[in-house]
User: Fold these one by one.
Assistant:
Number 1:
Amino acid sequence: MFSETRKNDHLLLLLFAIVTLAGPILLAPLGAGYPDLLQRFCIFGIFAIGFNILFGLTGYLSFGHAAFLGVGSYSAVWMFKLLTMNVIPALILAVLIAGLFSLLIGYISLRRSGIYFSILTLAFAQMSFSLAYSVLTPITNGETGLQLSLKDPRILDATNTSGSLPSTNLFGLTMNSTAKVDFLGMTLQFNIGFYFCAIMLIIAFYISMRIFRSPFGLMLRAIKTNQTRLNYTGINTRPYTLAAFVISGMYAGLAGGLMACTDPLAGAERMQWTASGEVVLMTILGGAGTLLGPVLGAGFIKYFENIFSKINDNVLHNTFAFLPDGLEDFVVSILHVFVGKGWHLTLGVLFMMVVIFLPGGLIEGANRILSWLRTRGKAGDNTAESKETTTTKTAVNPAE
Amino acid sequence: MSKQFTRRGVLKTGAAVSAGLAMPTIFTSSASAYMNEPKGATVTLGFNVPQSGPYADEGADELRAYKLAVEHLNGGGDGGMMKTFSSKALKGNGILGKKVAYVTGDTQTKSDAARASAKSMIEKDGAVMITGGSSSGVAIAVQGLCQEAGVIFMAGLTHSNDTTGKDKKANGFRHFFNGQMSASALAPVLEKNYGKDRKAYHLTADYTWGWTQQKSIAAATEAMGWQTVKNVLTPLATTDFSSYIAPVLNSGADVLVLNHYGGNMINSLTSAVQFGLRDKQVNGKNFEIVVPLYSRLMARGAGKNVKGIFGSTNWHWSLSDEGSKAFVKSFGEKYGFPPSQAAHTCYCQTLLYADAVERAGTFNPCGVAEALEGFKFDGLGNGPVEYRKEDHQCFKDVIVVKGKEKPTSQFDVLEVVEVTPRAQVEYPVDHPMFAGGNLGKCNSGA
């Protein structure tokens, strides 16, 4: 399933859809089965998939993608304020505005490549952050963040008489309604907002898969491999890179819009350079240029941020209560550095190990394990035929 | 084949589909009467404080106070202000017989992070009340979230007029005072000490708190004859203020008002002193600096630079009423130093919430809100206090302080100049600085 060849695309998509939709059940034992985090997995999954279309395929490393995410959020919240609480117009506007914005930034930044391109995008993103943070306060509400208020016009919605803020909805289906089911001592939470994000993620994944397999995708890979040679053969690469840049900007806009749909507030911090760096980490950790990698990386980082960071000394003491007292304190004092506030440290170590030992990211790790299992399983037969298939299969992988 | 989509038709279908899909939700949520109803032997409170960013010092002190309050509620320690509190509903056996447990989160002084953290407390840990925050931007964002989710929000240190003004919410309550009260309390003291003919230059933190406090201070000082020369907004993340201080010298102003708090105030005051502002003579008068919102933690951070500088505060540990003494004693015994005003307001808020639950006999946010509205109490260190029903703001005396000339210890850096009585700082609900808000109706999340 990880080999990502063209022939098992449908199987991959099916498996991906099943795993995504079963998220609340699969992640509940890991303590991550609550709606807010599940939604974040999907949203950042979309963000990373989009980033991967630019970075994974063309090799252009953008350090400013958070700007498009922020623009998407602001557009969506404005749509909620002015037009309607329905999420569809908000998402459409978010994607459109982010697309326009990325067209502008991409048009300028793509005149350079390599490190200069990265610096240009970084500069643009920081500029947008500063604009949102202070200069454009009437539009963005600065540090406080753009929020809904009872006085907003919302011209398409019926007049609100309840005295409380309306919730975002999909034709009446409110995003924050959750069905709780008790199952094996756990409470499973099935949330509408999560399923909406999950379906968006699956669609985003499918589109990215089609791009990967298309002639356009092939051209993008050619740009990554050797842009100069393409230029010498008379091909103008600029339109291709710009298209990839705009597509990934629109993905970011969609992610930003979804963030606003699940929680109708847009803050300037989500445009800061740290947020742009995060998506780079996600993509590289998972495996740049692979289909599944970015989603995996996004899930990993968000899990660390939300779950690992909550482990405190109390939890550790409970976990190691079976050890003798002195030893328990010793183990806890060592682990203390790596959990709670130290989750960045753990993530950093993990990231370094992945980059050094698995340059292809977590996906490469999974592939290695799978192929090792396969060779071991077939070693018993010891027939020439099975060896041959294994070699052909592994030979297919590097091409992907 | 032609299909006609009418707006009415689409809406009808949408409503029907959503009603069908919402059915399971209705069945399952009927098990709880309200959001996160505590069913076991414990009740979980969510303490959402900044553990990083410019207000991290305040956040750390708030967390200490919360832990102390939980200890006292569960019957541990010496009971602190529970003994001096005028309401005797709390018995030291938890809240409504349920042991108090808590979860903590880091707001990072960012609205986004604070909401994510509060959301995970509500959804994952089942917190029935969220409290904390050391920035009004964060407090307003989290207050909005709690209103939508259907839990009570007991605001921590938030001083913006908007928290109980433009952005007030039925589920949110604030014990701390606000920019308007600071202005009403400070203005007479400033007039007495610096005269009626002054030119003020404002440096203001660029977010809701800075904006509203600056407006209130400017209005109050202009009413007594001062001029406002200029107001410059500084981003919250600024650490080097020298480029903002330099223009003050040439502006013709003779008073600098620093609408800054926490790390911001420490940095801006330090650079103002380094630029020699306090030794300057402008318009034939000594140049003066005013810090409208003071805290001991900041005063300590700024060191000797705060000497003689006026400001206001919600509470100070050197107050000699029974409540303050009891709180300082139990806080000091546990942590080895006196509490800050942030710690005090957070401790009070936890006790006030617990007390309201006991009196209401339920954790239901609507019942608790009703118990808090119009509640009059005493013995929590501020004298008689009232939670005003119309905007969920506490009204009480405001303390005007001054940086001490001869501090005796690193904690003894502020001296109380005047206790401004409640009547002088009270304002009507429809005051223009607080206009545009609507409490809405309480939401129990059911």
Number 2:
Amino acid sequence: MSEIDLRIAAPVNGSAALRAAGLAAGTILILAAPLLASEYWINAIIVPFLILSLAGLGLNLLTGYAGQLSLGAGAFMMVGAYATFSLQLRVPDLPLPLALIVSGLIAASVGLAFGIPSTRIKGFYLIVSTLAAQFFFEWLFLKFPWFYDGNSSATISLPRGLTVFGLNAETPHGRYYLTLGAVALLTLLSFNLVRSQTGRNWMAIRDMDTAAAVIGVPVTRAKLQAFAISSFILGVSGALWAFAYLGSASVQSFGLSRSYQILFIIIIGGLGTIRGAYLGAAFVSLLPLALDWLFQHLFSGHVDAGLLQNIQKGIFGLLIMWFLVKEPEGLARLLGIRLAARRRLFPSSQN
Amino acid sequence: MTTPARPALQVKNVSLSFKGVKAISDLSFQVEAREICALIGPNGAGKSSLLNILNGVYVPDAGDIIFEGEHFRRMEPLEAARRGIGRGFQNNALFSGMSVIDNVITGLSRHSRLTLVEEMFRLPRARNEERRFRERAHEVLRLFGLDRHAATIVGTLPYGVQKKVELARAVVAEPRLVLLDEPLAGMNAAEKQEIATVIGRLNRDLGLTIVLIEHDIGIVLELAHHVVVLDYGRKLADGPPETIRDNPDVIAAYLGSERTEIAA
């Protein structure tokens, strides 16, 4: 037990006025971001960053909070994307936001079904079950043309583009606000949930499942709830990834590497924290840019693009290992230590 | 609902074995409502295994458990908790990544009546329940002198404090019977006395029936109304502490050299 540990665990006692001001400034900045950022930044960096954060959040509820390892994130995103496509194509009267919700519910029931093995097996063996979801849906959505409406490229894109209650959202600003709305709402709901009894039940199962059952935690129900909620969020994020970011998608957009990417996001960002998903997604989104910039400056662009990609993968691999060994709680905790240290150095900022 | 005439718990002819090795053989005893019953015996006597049978972690090979008049061939852990059997573990089984208060509130799970939607949107019912749970948890934390640790992550606390958190979690849901596995182990004399006092008060003031395993004979004789002595999975003696202290079998098999200490 060190002093640092105790300090981090203590609630952050920033001055209320300062926090409110910070929150207001943050909100204004987030709402005004499209006016400040270039179209390239919105389309290629900010929107995918937000969607990856959402996907990370979804997986973090299951893996970081409830302790159920999953390599099926891509599969549940895929289900959400294909469900949204089908709904928009076949139920044209259903507005996009409602279609997203229904798709989330479809993904949730799929997640629930693939979560059933978790009531009997855990850890390594559970990964196999979620991996089965990954391969099953890649096969399913390619095998039956009904899922992609039989078009020759086997890709899906919204028949009427992104329209939100009649408004065209097919602009960078539209994509941004649609994504932001979904991400903000789902983050808020998740935040409420992890602070409630369900969230405590999840963490109890993660930390010690036998004791959880003995003290009265409904372990089976809580695990299945974690699968369902997590898959709901992943489903919505998959639909956004397909239609608000990519525009048109295929099963390859949600392959196993996507599942790994989402898992890396929460490992790097911090398992079992809400902000971890954001930090991890920011890291994953910005690292390629940073490396690109670095190599441009160091070697004035003489590095082969393929090599650069491989170097990126190598760096990711090393970072994952470093995080798993040194800081299993990820960036969220590293930043927490910084904040705690600052509070110690400048006690006046704390009252 | 318990009448003084009916025992809170009866264990009837219970046997348990692990891969052919008998851990408990044909054990019977009963615990009256509102009493503190101490299980004593050397390591490996089957004490912890018995507690695990009582709240459903282990399934006995034979025998019955009668809890508040109802017969069980076996308990399910969740069922035991719902019926009001609380439990503290020998090696702390706390949720190490959670704060002290969250650990304790988790013990209230069986009283939660919320739906996911109510929790997600923090509807009035959810806020109400959360407030009640938090107040109840603080009440129990105060009882154990743990208020100042409420927000601390439990894994960072010293062992003795963790033991208290575990006790707080075991009793927060107002169980009717609580099973405590060496609640005083690893504590210093002052801490032991403090916790023994709290256990005594829980029993006296709240009428809680307690079955506890404890090695400190001094504390057992002071606290328990009833002592059951186990050795190699069999019952060696069963009765009020005074008779146990003087039982030659017990002295020979278990107390041995500690006799002088007791006499003193």
